[in-house]
């Protein structure tokens, strides 16, 4: 559901860089692998890319389950790894950098907005793995620290399709607001659809819905609040330039750019800057340089510092009918 837009962003970055001479005079070649969104698939994909295809860098948008499974392979290969998906934070590895949002950046805009609009009681619902639990652990702490009350905290498997039991608990406590943190794609669609069918009217925030997924959810997503470091409606010269280039390259086949695909675009440019600063493809030199370089792209200036994570401008968005 999300991957096609990520691949398109990567293709545009590669094309633009190659049109200007590549990286240190070498052409950028993309090797695209499918991790099946899970741990076993990630191990196969990482192993194939790093040890068989011998790629110079791994740049990936994927689930936390996949990232965690692949990290030991990255350590063995000793290659730079840029993770481009919003996630629960706190992943540490000497080769890992992340240019996408974490809970400290994502939770406050939604919770603060709900509280300003009268929300006092919150119900949290997520997928039962690192991302869902990590995001909602931070959300609970933030809500309670700011005087709100969590009246429900429920999890379902990553591949859950039936949310009846959780929605029944939700109805019994009738929360003012609901914050969702489900595995990207299908669970967001099924949970939101089934929630809408109940007729409940709480304020809804979702920490894992991007614009592309929202589009695929249709009318069910209307009214849902999301936080993102990139939205297609950003009104800046760089953001408009990026959208125009995407539309020119992909035309009617363009998948909606979003906060999972644009960090992929930025990451390729950040890698280019790090290689040029290092002056070689030496992994240790590039890993050091990644903390020091920046790229001014569709989201504004992005730099991954010594914390290995990028300070980002964050935006609160609400899904509309269209």
Describe the 3D structure:
The chain is of the alpha/beta class and 322 residues long. It has helices at 3-19, 39-52, 64-77, 103-116, 130-145, 164-173, 186-198, 211-217, 237-250, 262-278, 283-290; strands spanning 58-60, 81-83, 96-98, 121-127, 149-156, 177-181, 203-206, 225-228, 294-297, 300-303, 315-318.
Quick structural summary:
The protein is α/β, with parallel strands linked by helices and 322 residues long. It is built from eleven helices and eleven strands. α2 (39-52) packs parallel to α3 (64-77), α7 crosses α8 (211-217) and α10 crosses α11 (283-290).
Blueprint (SSEs and pairs):
Elements: H1 3-19, H2 39-52, E1 58-60, H3 64-77, E2 81-83, E3 96-98, H4 103-116, E4 121-127, H5 130-145, E5 149-156, H6 164-173, E6 177-181, H7 186-198, E7 203-206, H8 211-217, E8 225-228, H9 237-250, H10 262-278, H11 283-290, E9 294-297, E10 300-303, E11 315-318
Parallel strand pairs: 1-2, 2-3, 4-5, 4-6, 6-7
Antiparallel strand pairs: 8-11, 9-10
Give Rg in angstroms: 20 Å
What fraction strand? 15-25%
Q: What overall form do the CA principal axes indicate?
A: globular
User: Low-confidence segments, ≥5 residues, pLDDT <50?
Assistant: none
Question: What percent of residues adopt helix (DSSP H or I)?
Answer: 40-55%
Main sheet: strand order: 5-4-6-7
The largest sheet, given as strand count, sense and whether it forms a barrel, is: 4 strands, parallel
Give the distance, in angstroms, between the N- and C-terminal Cα atoms. Answer: 19 Å
**Average pLDDT over all residues:** 95
Number of helices: 11
For the secondary structure, the number of strands is: 11
The helix/strand series, from N terminus to C terminus, equals: HHEHEEHEHEHEHEHEHHHEEE
Backbone structural class? alpha/beta
């Amino acid at each position: 559901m999300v991957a096609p837009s990520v691949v398109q962003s990567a293709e545009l970055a590669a094309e633009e860089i190659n049109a200007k001479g590549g990286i240190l005079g070498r052409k950028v070649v993309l090797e695209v692998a499918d991790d099946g969104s899970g741990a076993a698939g990630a191990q196969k994909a990482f192993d194939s890319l790093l040890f068989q295809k011998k790629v110079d860098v791994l740049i990936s948008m994927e689930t936390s389950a996949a990232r965690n499974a692949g990290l030991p392979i990255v350590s063995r290969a000793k290659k730079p790894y840029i993770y481009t998906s919003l996630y629960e934070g706190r992943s540490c590895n000497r080769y890992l950098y992340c240019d996408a949002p974490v809970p400290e950046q994502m939770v406050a805009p939604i919770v603060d907005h709900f509280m300003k609009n009268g929300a006092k009681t919150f119900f949290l619902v997520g997928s039962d793995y690192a991302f869902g639990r990590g995001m909602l652990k931070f959300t609970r702490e933030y809500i309670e620290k700011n005087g709100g009350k969590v009246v429900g905290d429920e999890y379902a498997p990553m591949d859950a399709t039936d949310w009846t039991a959780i929605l029944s608990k939700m109805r019994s406590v009738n929360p003012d607001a609901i914050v969702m943190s489900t595995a990207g794609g299908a669970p967001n669609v099924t949970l939101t659809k089934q929630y809408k069918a109940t007729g409940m009217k709480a304020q809804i925030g979702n920490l894992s819905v991007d614009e592309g997924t929202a589009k695929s959810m249709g009318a069910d997503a209307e009214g849902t609040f999301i936080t993102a470091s990139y939205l297609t409606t950003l009104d800046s010269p760089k953001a408009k330039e990026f959208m125009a280039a995407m539309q020119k390259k992909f035309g009617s086949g363009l998948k909606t750019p979003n906060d999972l695909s644009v960090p992929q675009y930025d990451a390729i440019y950040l890698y280019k800057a790090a290689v040029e600063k290092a002056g070689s493809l030496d992994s240790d030199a590039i890993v050091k340089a990644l903390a020091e370089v920046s790229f001014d792209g569709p989201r504004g200036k992005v730099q991954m510092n010594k914390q290995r994570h990028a300070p980002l401008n964050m935006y609160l968005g609400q899904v509309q009918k269209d």
